[in-house]
Amino acid sequence: MASRSSALARPPAFRGVGRSILLTLPMALWSLLMFTPSFRQAGRNQHIGAMAVILFMTGLFFLMMRTGETYRWRRIFFVALGFLFPVGFIAALVAERGTMSIPISRMVSGDTPFCFMVTPSLILPAAFAHTIIFPGSILPTASNPHSIAAMIGIWFAMTLVLGKAWCSYACFFGGIEEGFAAIPKRRRLHRFITRFGAQLRLIPWAILVFVVLVSAAIFEPVYCMWLCPFKAVTEFPAVRNLETAIQFGVFIALFVGLVVVLPFLTKKRTQCGFFCPFGAFQSLFNKINLFEIRFDREKCVDCALCQTSCPTVALSKESIREGKTLLNCMKCGACVDACKKDAAVWHLKGTPIAAKPERARLLFLYGAWAMATMFGGSVLANGVHTLIGFLPWK
Amino acid sequence: MATLALSASAGEALVLGLATGPVCLATCGPVVVPWMMVQPQGLRGHSRQLILFLAARLAGYLVFACAVWLLGSAIPHVNRSEWTGRSWVMGGIQVLLAAALVVYAAGWPHRRCVVAKTTGNLVQIGEASAPRRSGAMALGFLTGINLCPPFLVAGVRAAQLAHLSAALLFFFCFFAGTAVWFFPFLSLGFLKRTPAVVTVARMVAVLLACWYGFSGISILVERTFHG
Fold first, then answer.
1. What domains can you pick out in chain A, each with its CATH number?
2. Closest residue on chain A to B32 (Cα)
3. Do the interacting molecules here have an ipTM over 0.90?
């Protein structure tokens, strides 16, 4: 038994130190480039935050190169992003308004920062009525630099290149539940997930269709107003009457249920896999995206380790038999790292399967990590800088 | 002179329907889309369902035209903007719509015809189109009498007309103008039908039922307690 496990175990170093440093160098330069504006700012805390994030992102990328593993190191970044985003965001809200709730007057004046989650709901009203049904500003303003046009532009460019990898390298929210999913050792409700996985996977599509249709019918971003679990840790309409009280209750219930309790019990990203309509929308871009995970059927022994490890239930027995993931794969790399036979591989569409999987992985990771650094880096730095501000010896 | 007035009124209704059609599309879309998604693939079946839906919707329009004309002639001096019965009607219709969607999502009364269970995990879509006429008609009628903003505008105008026939003609032309906007829904006929698509459509229907139910009950509760 011992000899079998040692034979199956990965070598401790996948790549030499020199070669790993060389491969990390472009990403180190990219991180420096991304944080150059931070160094122009006067505050010492900002400098510390920026420096910490450069080291953090570069260090994690180095470890990805050195060990050949993706999921473990990506998860560290992603969980940090998930927990530091609310820290910086809530601190900024409280400093500016004294509360996390947003009054209607502020929403009407377009001071709401744009959230990419609302993107699918904007399409029909924009097409039919030339109206953006989100209370933000199309172009940047002095009070709100995160304009709708800029955010949608960045999201669209990234999504074209990386497909649904957005959900595991750029989304501010997914890291929170991934963090809770990482805590327990034991996986509970496994039988339930296996039994009903096929149906559960369809719920985000149903919510997507519902949200898009109703948003167009009532000219309101229904997901933001009623269904977003992350309102509980960002901003929400001020509770003024029964309706806003119900909204607030829904946000809290969804957050506790889908982002805290269920991930803790199942070790899955339940909100991402079984609820998020934006994730379903994002899945469509996997169709036109170059990168994917494939399974080498000659090496596969149907042990289902990949299926068990997938945090969003994006694998089924049928899909593995066909050598593919399902459409909702977010390219986190968990299945590739879990596979002891190297049957799960990174793949570039149009090339033979398992011909040069490491090259496909590298190409993907450069894009994905550049996006993570660009999109999440400033969020991380902001969170670190906020935490330093809380320290007694600051 | 009367013919000229009638033609002008019909033209006005047609233009009103064409102009406000996108709002009708958005208002009826949440009901039509899941319904069409659950039908078998193909343009012919979808056309039949859409015609049934629109016919029932027209019936709803004409019923409403009669009601508003009678109301308009019975109480000519009432300030219609202050007519408080609107909330009751709106709330009631939305609750009925929610109930209809739940019934449809549950597959009743044609469950055995629509989905035949083959194995433990797989479902196969059977010969489904023929018996599902009542669903299209019920949903069409309920969306037909649902008080959306363009519908109320048309209602106010129809209530001011001299004859019932003129009010009915007005609503018929208004319907014709809005119906043009429904043809894009036929494109759903080209969507590939899989068990997943049908399941998603049913889930959407349940979510919409919750939405309409909540909205309708909120209106009724507010009307009851706050007048």
1. 12-100+357-389 (no CATH), 117-283 (no CATH), 290-355 (3.30.70.20)
2. A213
3. no
